[in-house]
Design goal:
125 residues, 85% helix, globular
Length: 125
């Protein structure tokens, strides 16, 4: 068991993950999601085609993949890091309330925009 814990800690260090980096990546990812949501809303307002909406999604999927690549990680590794370090991450947010507030603002703004997009889609079809 001790070897497994050391190996997991080593993996976290291998791709440079710590709470600060985790939240930095989280915020950048949310910012990309917000940009995509805004672009999708603009597209919905213009009644653009499904193909155009798909292309927007593909563009941001590529940008998100590049973001994770720059951090030498993947969504699966980030999820695993979160699972193994949930308590440490929660403690970090307690000592950095500005990060928690920024994440909440981004999530709220994304939610509002997505609700607006859904209104163009007939209520979320």
């Amino acid at each position: 068991m001790k070897k497994l814990i050391l190996m997991m800690a080593g993996m976290a260090m291998l791709f440079g993950m710590d709470p600060k980096t985790y939240y930095e990546l989280s915020i950048k990812s949310l910012e990309l999601t917000l940009l995509e949501s805004k672009e999708q809303l603009n597209c919905a307002e213009k009644l653009c085609s499904v193909k155009e909406r798909y292309l927007i999604n593909q563009k941001y999927t590529a940008k998100t993949a590049e973001l994770y690549k720059r951090y030498n990680t993947t969504p699966v590794k980030i999820s695993s890091y979160y699972t193994r370090n949930k308590k440490k991450l929660e403690e970090y947010l307690k000592t950095h309330p500005e990060i928690k507030e920024k994440i909440q603002r981004l999530e709220e703004e994304i939610g509002v925009i997505n609700d607006a997009i859904n209104s163009y889609n007939g209520g979320g079809e």
